[in-house]
Amino acid sequence: MAKRVLEEMQSLDYDETRVDRLGNVVGIIRGTSGGPPVMMNCHMDVVAEGAKEQWEHPPFSGFVEGGFLHGRGSMDIKGPLAVQTYAGAAVKGIAPGDVIVAHTVFEERGGWGMEDLLARKVVEPAAVIIGEATQGDVTTGHRGRAEVEVVLRGVAGHASAPDRAKNPLDLVPAVLTALKDLAAVQPRDPVLGPASLAPTAIDVLPESRNVIPDEVVVVVDWRVLPDSTDQDLLASVRKALEGRLPALPPEMQVEVRMAREMQTSYTGISDRRNLFTPGFLMDADSPLILEAARAVGRREGEGMATVRPWTFATDGGWSMGVFRIPTLGFAAGEERFAHTNRERWELGEAEWAFSRHPALILALQKTLG
Ligand SMILES: [Zn+2]
């Protein structure tokens, strides 16, 4: 995938192309007069396709029918990735500032690619356009996602002699009640709505049905508002637990932690990554968003594009939520098809979205300049 993107950028006569340490592919079209650099971003990974026979058309066939490109990644996000890559080439010799096209790795697993790209200053854009589906609207942000684990430890034992063990499963009802308490007091944002949390899994170790376990992990999926930090989230879970857990014997412990996952990039770099994806929200009345909505317009009819947040999370949580680089979304595609076995991308809408990119890039550079 990375090799193909790189070759495509080279054949489109990008002024500079490179692959960074994690494998993000970056192409640069140099600006004509040193204006502010604007970055377009999609990601190179996709979510799993699931049961192949459940798809209308084979998920990796690239089948075109009824004006739609069908399959995994058609909309999320190989289609928009192609649009952005070609849109960069389309403004060569026109855009006053650099146009950076950076297609990142690991977006679907927390956004390590985007975080690393910006933290290491591989590129330093003044604004970012994310190519996740907006159906032609201009999007301004989304809630973030955190995965928190409540780890309950006890003493394992033979299930025939429960008195000799300390069963951490006994604590699960109190933990679930505490999480319900916490869910009931989540903050609300007027645009993004409330933060929400739900227990989504309980892992029991060892996985033997005739053994009293010594470890139970309650997994919490938490959709958080922008500016939430690990420390705040963990502290609020600990506080909720204090109100519900009984006094524990010394052999039993409770730990609250962020979920982590070992990730290895195709370039060979590994890290145990926190799965936290931050949220972000741009002011819908800021000049940048208004000019973007004006430049994009509407596919049908007159006037400005609709401005709204996304429902799902994107790498914009890193670019704006953490690195404070103004970020917006613009792409063809309906959000509701993402990650489903009906994923599809309307080609007429895609052509229209492609045609609006030069105006969008120029408007951003003008507003920032
Ligand atoms: Zn995506």
Ligand types: zinc ion
Q: What CATH architecture of the largest domain would you give?
A: 3-Layer(aba) Sandwich
Terminal CA distance: 34 Å
Average predicted local confidence, pLDDT: 97
- Largest β-sheet summary: 6 strands, mixed
CATH homologous superfamily designation of the largest domain: Zn peptidases
What is the number of E strands? 23
Instruction: Provide the domain count.
Output: 2
**Strand line-up across the major sheet:** 1-2-6-3-7-22
- Low-pLDDT parts are none
Secondary structure: elements and pairs:
Layout: H1 2-11, E1 16-19, E2 25-29, E3 35-43, E4 64-65, E5 68-70, H2 74-90, E6 97-104, H3 112-119, E7 127-130, E8 138-139, E9 141-142, E10 144-153, E11 157-158, H4 172-183, E12 188-189, E13 193-194, E14 196-205, E15 211-212, E16 215-224, H5 230-242, E17 253-258, E18 260-264, E19 270-274, E20 280-281, H6 287-296, E21 307-308, H7 316-322, E22 327-329, E23 344-346, H8 347-368
Parallel strand pairs: 3-6, 3-7, 7-22, 8-21
Antiparallel strand pairs: 1-2, 2-6, 4-5, 5-23, 9-20, 10-16, 10-17, 11-15, 12-13, 14-16, 18-19
